[in-house]
């Protein structure tokens, strides 16, 4: 089977090394808000930007989130639950003054970097915190 480019390595590792090459420094797999049990993949603590790389399957990507045919109801409920939790995470973090950047594992790395930079820029120019979602491709 021919491998897709975006499957070659773990998506969050690819994003981390791309950000690192750009001279950005960050924390990895940490909670933006210590009392909130949500872990971001990449965290810019000073700028209050939390980055999540969502797996296409588990987070219900519209392009790749196809459901298995057996136990379908179970998986639909499970993935819908994950999506609700993601939306809640975004809301809670934004309420706490964080920018949330969410990209899919299939998001081209250069697009993901642009979105992270956008979050950092907005934060540094004191814009209102918000969740920034990667474009669906
Ligand atoms: Zn996808």
Topology at a glance:
Layout (H helix, E strand, L loop, with lengths): L10 H11 L5 E4 L9 E5 L4 E6 L17 H24 L3 E6 L4 H16 L6 E3 L4
Parallel strand pairs: 3-4, 4-5
Antiparallel strand pairs: 1-2, 2-3
Bound molecules: zinc ion.
Question: Can you characterise this structure?
Answer:
The protein has helices at about 10-20, 70-95, 110-125; strands at about 25-30, 40-45, 50-55, 100-105, 130-135. With about 140 residues, the chain is of the alpha/beta class. It has one domain (about 5-135): 3-Layer(aba) Sandwich (Endonuclease, Chain A). Helix 1 (about 10-20) crosses helix 3. It is globular and about 45 Å long. It starts with 10 loop residues before the first helix and ends with a strand. It binds zinc ion. Zinc ion binds near residues 56 and 104.
């Amino acid at each position: 089977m021919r491998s897709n480019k975006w499957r070659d390595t773990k998506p969050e590792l690819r994003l981390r090394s791309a950000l690192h090459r750009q001279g950005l420094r960050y924390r990895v797999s940490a909670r933006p808000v210590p009392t909130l049990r949500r872990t971001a993949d990449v965290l810019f603590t000073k700028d209050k930007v939390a980055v999540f790389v969502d797996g296409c399957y588990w987070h219900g990507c519209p392009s790749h989130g196809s459901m298995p045919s057996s136990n379908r109801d179970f998986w639909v409920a499970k993935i819908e639950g994950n999506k609700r939790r993601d939306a809640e995470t975004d809301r809670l973090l934004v309420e706490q003054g964080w920018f949330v950047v969410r990209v899919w594992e299939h998001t081209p790395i250069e697009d993901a970097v642009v979105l992270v930079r956008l979050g950092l820029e907005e934060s540094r120019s004191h814009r209102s915190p918000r969740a920034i979602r990667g474009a669906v491709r």
